[in-house]
Design a protein that fits this description.
Main location: membrane
CATH architecture of the largest domain: Up-down Bundle
Protein name: Transmembrane efflux protein
Number of domains: 2
Largest sheet: none
Number of helices: 18
Mean pLDDT: 85
Subcellular location: Cell membrane
Shape: globular
Number of strands: 0
Low-confidence stretches: 399-403
Organism: Actinomadura verrucosospora
Order of helices and strands: HHHHHHHHHHHHHHHHHH
GO molecular function: transmembrane transporter activity
CATH topology of the largest domain: Growth Hormone, Chain: A
Structural class: mainly alpha
Amino acid sequence: MPGPYRELLSVPGARPFVAAGFVGRMSMSMVGIGIVLLVSAVTGSYGIAGSVTATLSLSYAVGAPLSARYADRYGQRRVLLPLVLANTASFTVLIAFALAGMPAWTLFPAAAAAGLTQVSLGAWVRARWSHLLRDSPTRLHTAFSFESVVDESIFVTGPLVVTALATGVHPAAGIGAAAACTLVGCLAFAAQRGTEPPPRPRLPGVRGGVFRNPGVVVITPVFLALGMVFGAIDVSGVAFAQEKGHKALAGVLLGCYALGSGAAALWYGARRWRRPLARRFLVGLGLLTAGLVPPVLVGNLWLMMAVVFFSGLAISPTIIPGYGLVERLVPQHQLTEGLALVSTSVGVGVAAGSSLSGRVVDAYGGHAAFLVPLGSAVAAALIGLAGSRALSKRELSSRSIAE
């Protein structure tokens, strides 16, 4: 492990909460697929399965920023313990209803409850890093890079695990394992009291959430568009591999994309950067857009694997400064809420990108669907450029206040 990361994990208390956070957020890459595999197996309908998954995703997008706001206000442990118990109960009810053959409509309130009680644990982990490294911006940059590597590893391994369990063991095994990861990881995370950020009650005269922050108003739709890129790439990659007669290699194709992002995150986090975060964020958006042009032009599956690896190299150098900007622009008493908001924006974007790309696949084929992630990246870059002045001004003002 490179020196900066070894030094990072030597921070007192870091290893336990990093390990707990990894286990607890494994489910973020497992829940959607697990529900589809379970519900489609017991109902025979992918339409119902997709609708149940969409219900959970939309509920999660509403609930995660709210739970993060309360974590900022009252403390992570105090909020997380009852929330994760409610989440486990909700998933248990969902699984029980599905296996008992209950009417399809009963699955929707259970999925909504599971989504509302699902936390954006990655945001909570990043908030801990911000607390521990508040006096060391360089090491905080490394920490956010490290967390991007963790996210990529989760999105590579999670779908493989849940699919193997649901198809090889029992249709409910995949979603059951995801819920168990959430429970075990969150309980272990809550137990790490020494690294927990102190509660930050709402300041007198301060009203509303993080959307009153102009920087967040710019970053949130950018992250939503980036989520559309990721969701569309998944669907387009699977459809493209199937068109070429190698559907079994779809996972390898998507893994090359994630591998490129993970490699870039390791490199990016080990460097010391002097350029402002806002400028790095905009450069990343430009490189990400440029990197998504070649997949539209390539028609060979084996060449596509190499192409998407290089396309993935721009993901982490975009996401990492994006999270860094949130950490810089959002007041400390709203930090977890701000980080959770952009994380859930990505989730909503993934759902939208998957749906849009699926429609394009049905109408024009898998290769044409690579236009969807390209168009989404263009939208993200244009929004970022339109709000660049606001981001730069906010970053400079927050830096001067910190100094």
